[in-house]
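Hi W.,

Here's what went into the run:
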Amino acid sequence: MRTLFLGIGLITTLLCSMSYAHGQKATERYIPIGQSPGISNKYTYIGVIEAIDPQQRTVTAAGHTVQITDETRIWLDRSLQKLSNQKGSFDDLQKGRKVEIKYTDTTQPQVAQWVKVQVTAP
Amino acid sequence: MSNRTHCTWRVISPGLGLLTLLLLVSSCQPVAPTDPQEALIAKGRDIFFNETFNGNGRTCGSCHREENNFTIDPAFIATLPPNDPLFVAEFNPELKENFENPRLMREFGLILENQDGFDDLANNFNMRGVPHVLAQRTSIESPQGPRTGWSGDGAPGDGTLRSFATGAVIQHFTKTLNRVAGVDFRLPTEEELDALEAFQLSLGRQQELQLPLPLKGTVARRGQELFLDDTLGKCNICHSNAGANAVIGGQNRGNANFNTGVEALPDQPADLTGERVPPDDGLGTPGDGTFNTPPLVEAADTGPFFHNNAIETIEGAVGFYDGESFNNSPSGQAVGGIELDGTQIVAIAAFLRVINALENIRESIEFLEKSTKRKSAEAKQLLGRALNETDDSIQTLVAGGLHPQAVAHLRRARKLTKEAVHSWFSRVRLTEDAIREQQKARADMVEP
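Here's what came out:
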């Protein structure tokens, strides 16, 4: 019986110490809109921003409304200007700008894991 | 000689010469594979070793060297010329700061990674070793998705091996720290990613070992027992069949991440230099302190060990699990600690050396056999790969004082393979003799 409990304890502790796989978010920032391997157009929405709700912190693009949380990474895609991509903020989500939104689940509203905002020359 | 015969010879001789020349030339031409999968692998191989993606000159092969088990270590690095693209931070002014640490690269084989982001390049980075890319077919799948790189999150996009190259190009191939796609590098195309994935999956072992093996060596056999004993060595829990997958409670959990306390090791070589080496927090941003489980069959000849190249020898790597850093770690606590003595540590290391050498022999034979069916240029390339594997098996056994008889056979196999490389007419016969010596070496180490 003691061995059984020890075994269950070992399994539980080891499983708790196991971690889930994630894509590498750091280099994702430098991948231009639409070019994320295995992701773009499969698990992302690409389109122009149709609406923004700062109170609800949601953004609507390509007909989908997604939630922006503190965990959502926002990047400014400046590759068209041949400039380095930068970290952005909610304020950079502006109507009419092209975005790519990686969503994390299928609940409504969906939560954005990251958003790339295309920045063109002023 | 009659006039008629003389005339005939005058006609035949140039004809024969031309024919011989044509045969020689045609035998030197590599033949494109006809099987679509083989063609994809060949394309991936070409990209892996030759494609710079319009970047700073590095290729995937700059760090994952075929002649060095698809990794690099300080001894190998010391053989490279100063203008090798690996050292780009030493001669490209744009990459002088915050791209690599040349001292740590040359002294400990460490590469700079911005795993947690690129906003504070001077302070936010990790120094990591280069993992080999062998046996990935059996080593990266998990129920939670594929795990690549030292912390299991090395690939952008969908996190798969296929996507890995995209992240690697951005991190390691860039011409400047601006990292602008289309300026500092180009991103791999979908077709290139397919080919690179196929090539990497083709490397090394394609299936798991089935332990226990009927080993002949006394110490290695005891090492295997300790390895498989879930109350003593406990190695097989996370490295099932000496691979990279965890079997917990009888269930295969695939390739997993664990916090084994490597970061808590005192006197880590890179730290001793006084160079800035921030703590590595492993998977995620911020990290959870866990790192990915590598396969062990290929371990003995691919040191230094762990994500930070903290330990140089396989004996030291096994000994780590007997130390305080591991035993106080979450994983050490989970398995109830590991207590081994010196003889047991060496026995487990001997086991790992022997299974590594057996894998070297398996690969050598595969390359040698393949070479007998290929034309000259490709055959020579395959013989070269067999030579590398043979060198590894010899070195792995000699350094552990193991199987001197097998080593003698391997040395003969090496000599014959070298002769085969330079032989015009006896290549196949010499190769077949080399295969027989490899088989004798294997027979000295394990029952058939």
